[in-house]
Amino acid sequence: MSTEKVIIKVENLTKHFPITRGVIVQRQIGAVQAVDNVSFEIREGETLGLVGESGCGKSTTGRTILQLHRATSGKVYYDGTDLTETGDDQMRKFRRDLQIIFQDPYASLNPRMTVGSIIAEPLEVHRIGTKKERRERVKELLALVGLNPYFINRYPHEFSGGQRQRIGVARALALNPKFIVCDEPIAALDVSIQAQVVNLLEELQEQFGLTYLFIAHDLSMVRHIADRTAVMYLGKIVELAERDELYGKPLHPYAQALLSAVPIPDPVKERERKRVILEGDVPSPSNPPSGCRFHPRCPIAEDICKEKEPEWREAHEDHWVACHLV
After folding, report:
1. Edge-to-edge strand order for the sheet containing 179-183?
2. Mean pLDDT, the chain, whole residue set
3. What CA–CA distance (Å, rounded) separates 188 from 168?
4. Hey, CA dihedral for 93, 38, 282, 228, is it positive or negative?
5. CA distances, 294 to each of 54, 313, 325 (Å)
6. Which long-range contacts (CB under 8 A, 24 or more apart) does 163-166 make?
7. Phi first, then psi: what are they for 225, rounded to 5°?
């Protein structure tokens, strides 16, 4: 159950990746503005959903919060401590509390290691327990995620995609973390397996009081799991609100377009609903448009949208939006 205590606070977070040219002497000729001046909070025990098109900066945001990418500028506070100012040794201590579940269960598990070694690795790195205690902990974690504890000596290729993702979840839980970035954990799985993994994550959250940043493409799945939802476009968060508020009354034109594409199970409502079709392609993050980044595709854009960047403001209680015309 979420509380009012803020566990993660992100202030003006920016992450640019340099574009270089040259073989021997490399010089920077530009930058991919993956995440640009993003601010939000995540409360203890809640799930914040982060949605948007491919390449909009969702995964980079999650990884920069965990300092897997060091921020270009901005601040990330965990329980009041600024992670962007911490050195590698100090950050190592925070790694026990901050974990990630990766998108691809095929690429994120070392094929040369047994399942037992994969899940025990965080315990070995942080020197927790004896060899026998670690083995018992691994069996306990396998059982916790719905896998047979006797699979401990098997290799990743012997498991299906859904089972591999459960192994990834077990590894993330090994150190009893408080905050987990779920980086599109169901995107690579069959639809029939996705619900099982999401239900598992919800059960574990309730059992251990976990806090999630849940990154996904699937808006209907985010509606199921998230308490609040943020919508991202080309490195910027354009809207953030409580789940039912955002899905029921989206304010930003991009959020409205995204949500108009989510199927409704009622055929009558589905026929009556008006789809918002966006023109053109997403601009390049290495050369984003001036003003509001959405203005080249926005159906209601005006001159001010091209010239001035909209401020991030609270339209009404706990409903944030970045749009001149809302």
Report:
1. 98-101, 179-183, 211-216, 47-51, 228-233, 236-242, 319-321, 313-316
2. 91
3. 13
4. positive
5. 15, 17, 13
6. 164/105, 164/106, 164/109, 165/101, 165/105, 165/189, 165/193, 165/197, 166/197, 166/200
7. -100, -30
Q: What is the pLDDT of residues 37-93, one digit of tens each?
A: 999 999 999 999 999 988 899 999 999 999 999 999 999 999 999 999 998 888 988
Long-range Cβ pairs for the range 27-33 (8 Å, 24+): 30/286, 30/287, 31/286, 32/285, 32/286, 33/235, 33/285, 33/286, 33/288
Cα three-residue angle 38-39-45, rounded to 5 degrees: 125
Distance CA 168, CA 164 (A): 6
7 within 8 A of 211, measured Cβ to Cβ: yes
Q: CB within 8 A of 108, min separation 6: which ones?
A: 102, 168
Phi then psi for residue 174, to 5 deg, are: -55, -35
pTM for the complete prediction? 0.92
Q: Measure the CA angle with vertex 316, ends 312 and 321; round to 5°.
A: 25
What is the distance of C-alpha 2 from the center of its chain?
18
Identify the helix (H) or strand (E) that includes residue 231.
strand 228-233
Taking the C-alpha atoms of residue 180 and residue 154, their distance in angstroms, rounded to an integer, is 26
How close are the terminal C-alpha atoms of the chain, in Å?
A: 32
Alpha carbon dihedral 202, 208, 211, 216, in 10-degree steps, equals -30
Decide if pLDDT at 281 tops 90.
no
Whether 173 and 141 have beta carbons less than 8 Å apart is answered as: yes
* Mean per-residue pLDDT, 155-159: 94
Q: Residue 49's Cα: distance from chain center in Å?
A: 7
> What are the strands of the beta sheet with 81-82, ordered from one edge?
27-43, 6-21, 73-78, 81-82
